[in-house]
Amino acid sequence: MALKITVSSSDPLQFSADALAIGVAEGVRRTGLLRDLLKLLGGTANKAIKRGEFTGKKGQTCDIATGGALKAGRVILVGLGELDAVTLADVRLAAATAARLASSGNCTTLAVAISEPNEGLEAAVAQGAVFGAYRFERFKSADQVSKFPLSKVSLLTVKKVNADLRAVVTDAQRFAEAVCIARDLVNTPPNELYPESLATIAKDLAKEHKAAGLSCSVLGPKQLKDKGMVLLDAVGRGSERGPRFIHMKYRPPKSNKKLKRLVFVGKGVTFDSGGLCIKPGPGMDEMKGDMGGAANIVALMAAVAIAQPEAEIHGLIAAAENMPDGNAYRPGDVFGSYLGKTVEIINT
What we know:
Blueprint: E1 4-8, E2 19-26, H1 32-41, H2 43-51, E3 61-65, E4 74-82, H3 88-104, E5 109-114, H4 121-133, E6 152-157, H5 163-187, H6 195-208, E7 214-219, H7 221-226, H8 230-235, E8 244-250, E9 261-272, H9 292-307, E10 312-322, E11 334-335, E12 343-344
Parallel strand pairs: 1-6, 2-4, 2-5, 5-6, 9-10
Antiparallel strand pairs: 3-4, 7-8, 8-10, 11-12
């Protein structure tokens, strides 16, 4: 279920939600929203803060049941650290922490109080909310899937809410969702994500963003050999699932100008058993993550299509599955390469 994020100028203490999150800087006196909150909740809140030794240090949290004193069912205080040192990254992390706690507590709605007019706070909170609400449940049994996922986050700001601010929040959410593409790919098991399926995902993403200037081309095993990309072919020889070279490209639509060109390269070993130099069993399950670089390239290109920069941007992925087999490359083998150099294999 897609997370719905809205922005409002409503009073946080009068807003109805399963949980209300408030960021608290370390050592700040109990003034403003925090003072009004504690006045409404009385001794219950003070006791929870004291017992939890909550002072606003970065990463600290304090979960307080409101007992009907507020329209929100519970309040989540999140430490921001020293006031003068708080960055947008800290705000993003705090929002992610609040969303994670709300989600683990079966809250379907979360309100986040933004009590300062600083630039960029709404975007940082929106991104943090997406990151904190993220769950990878595609392969879970039906009885293990979250019954009450976090589905709505309301940003309660002191700024005037207009179309421009809503657009900022929408873009921030879309960028965060692009990041989550990388999370999904790294979390996908290797029997489901292999060079060909990774290439299909990249092509589908390019098709989705075609109007934004994104395209994708893929070289298969035969084409790799024909082009002399022997080393990529060698890594994938031991697998029944052949290697792929994935080239994602962004260029602003209808632009004929000469543009600055940027190229990003991501490693796409969808499973690295070690080949004939096989890795030890403990930890080998983590080798599905050896394509994390490729996952970041796919996510990056999704974000680029959203940002629409005035530049030509390329994402290159060499995808292979490194497995032991009678056809696998060996230590001591020597191969040519696309650049014309020869390379001796020492360790697979």
